[in-house]
């Protein structure tokens, strides 16, 4: 089932540590069903900037990895249905912007936002959970949602040119099993988490299963760069 926020991501200053698991095309959040029709096309997200830092840079764009706290409210009665500060020991949430890991309205609302900025955004049903609602999240059908967002960090996302080049040791613009295997070992060593010995092979197999679309044993720049926010 989908939620309104990405699943657990611990806050880290070195985002390279998180890239190994983010290589997997498994959404941190399953994108919810979206309402169709002309209403969705005509609807707009209302954005109110509550605080704008004097130095507002960098600004978020599609494919960036964002770290933020936010609370969600029902516009109908002001009741709170989500608070990131009460989840995952209060850690801010990490997610990739603009790729469907959060509801469409949040992808729109958090574009061109800089670290330290705070926004209050109003999202119509067609850009949230539409006519179906989301019972598990206590969101009724046709609900307009309000989020209060505080953005902490804007980083290059896991599908960036920088991430690809970091793994592509020989610079041939394709990732071999050996290159990704070595990268996983390095990332596992950095984060220091205990894993079953089989975890490395399972993740490596899954990466190739979901990314090596032509089955040639390599992950090309095109196959890797699914978010297409940079040119390789």
What key phrases describe this protein's structure?
endoplasmic reticulum; metal-binding; two-stranded antiparallel sheet; disordered N terminus; peptidylprolyl isomerase; Chitinase A, domain 3; 7 helices; alpha+beta
Description of the structure:
The strands form two sheets. Strands 1, 2, 3, 4, 5 and 6 form a six-stranded antiparallel β-sheet that branches. The relative contact order is 0.20. The chain has two domains: 110 residues, Chitinase A, domain 3; 60 residues, Recoverin, domain 1 (Orthogonal Bundle), CATH 1.10.238.10. It has 232 residues and is an alpha+beta fold. The longest helix is centred in the last third of the chain and has 15 residues. A hairpin with a 5-residue loop joins strand 2 and strand 3. Helix 5 packs across helix 6. This is peptidylprolyl isomerase. Keywords: Calcium, Endoplasmic reticulum, Glycoprotein, Isomerase, Metal-binding, Repeat, Rotamase, Signal. It comes from Mystacornis crossleyi. InterPro entries: EF-hand-dom_pair, EF_Hand_1_Ca_BS, EF_hand_dom, PPIase_dom_sf, PPIase_FKBP, PPIase_FKBP_dom. Its EC number is 5.2.1.8.
Number of domains: 2
Identify the CATH architecture of the largest domain: Roll
Estimate the strand proportion.
15-25%
The description of the largest β-sheet is:
6 strands, antiparallel
> Would you tell me the structural class of the helices and strands?
alpha+beta
| CATH third-level topology of the largest domain | Chitinase A, domain 3
> What is the share of helical residues?
10-25%
Q: What would CATH call the class of the largest domain? A: Alpha Beta
What's the number of extended β-strand segments? 8
What is the N-to-C succession of helices and strands? HHEEEEHEEHEHHEH
Shape estimate: elongated
Distance between the termini: 34 Å
Number of helices: 7
Which stretches are poorly predicted, pLDDT < 50 over at least 5 residues?
A: 1-42, 226-232
Radius of gyration: 19 Å
Mean pLDDT: 78
């Amino acid at each position: 089932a989908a939620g309104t926020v990405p699943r657990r991501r611990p806050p880290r200053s070195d985002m390279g540590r998180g890239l190994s698991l983010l290589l997997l095309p498994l959404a941190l959040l399953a994108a919810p069903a979206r309402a169709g029709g002309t209403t969705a096309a005509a609807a707009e997200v209302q954005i109110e900037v509550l605080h704008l830092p004097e130095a507002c840079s960098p600004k978020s764009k599609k494919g960036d990895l964002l770290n933020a706290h936010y609370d969600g409210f029902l516009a109908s009665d002001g009741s709170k249905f989500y608070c990131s500060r009460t989840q995952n020991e209060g850690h801010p949430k990490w997610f990739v912007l603009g790729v469907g890991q959060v509801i469409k309205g949040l992808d729109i609302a958090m574009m061109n936002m800089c670290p330290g900025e705070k926004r209050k955004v109003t999202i119509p049903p067609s850009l949230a959970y539409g006519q179906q609602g989301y019972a598990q999240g206590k969101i009724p059908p046709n609900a307009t949602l309000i989020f209060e967002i505080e953005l902490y960090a804007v980083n290059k996302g896991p599908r960036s040119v920088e991430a690809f080049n970091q793994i592509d040791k020989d610079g041939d613009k394709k990732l071999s099993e050996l290159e990704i295997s070595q990268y996983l070992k390095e990332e596992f060593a950095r984060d220091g988490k205990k894993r079953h010995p089989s975890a490395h092979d399972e993740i490596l197999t899954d990466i190739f299963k979901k990314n090596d679309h032509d089955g040639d044993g390599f992950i090309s720049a095109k196959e890797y760069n699914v978010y297409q926010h940079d040119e390789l």
